[in-house]
Amino acid sequence: MDTACWNAVIVGCTQNGYYLDSLRTFNLMRRETQVSHDSITLVSVISACGNFELFLEGQRSHGLAVKTLVDADIRVQNALISMCGKLGEVHSAHLVFNFCNNRNLCSWNCMISALSQNNDAKEALALFRSLDFEPNETTIATIISVCTQLGLAGFGKQIHGYVFRFQFPTNSFVIAALVDSYNNSGRLERAATVF
Q1: How would you label 59-69 residue by residue, b for 16+ Cβ within 10 Å and e otherwise?
Q2: What is the pLDDT of residues 77-116, one digit of tens each?
Q3: CA triplet 51, 88, 40: central angle to 5 degrees?
């Protein structure tokens, strides 16, 4: 089997929630074959570590990425930011984010989400305000949640206007975030209208 075959199994396991199987397959690949991993392999393994809450294993995967020079791949960096966020390691997520030379919108979304997940809404909002890209549905859904955490109904309304101006209203995550935001601010009629 070549790298693509191993990746098919590892990625398939991770995408379907079989995180432990993904990690076992990766360890089998490394132990029993001469096939080398690539960035696709590591993105799935790092994601599995984050979802299965295995910080030490995630650090090992990061170390392997650095050792094999795959750590400069933006997809690996984004997976690391997400993993660190899920595990509550915001400082580590910041380090990876700051290390990224070629950040893309996904990098920004991962970092904003990591901050939001760890109740650092003020920092998430500050990062959003310095965003280098046009936001997408993921950015918008996350920042609406951040506004809800901070109780910023006015800014949330501005984001709501942005949603309709740029035609994001069909995205279920954006709609759910808006409904939650209006519900939490006591504007139940508005929440029902959005729903």
Answers
A1: bebbebbeeee
A2: 999 999 999 999 999 999 999 988 889 999 999 999 999 9
A3: 40
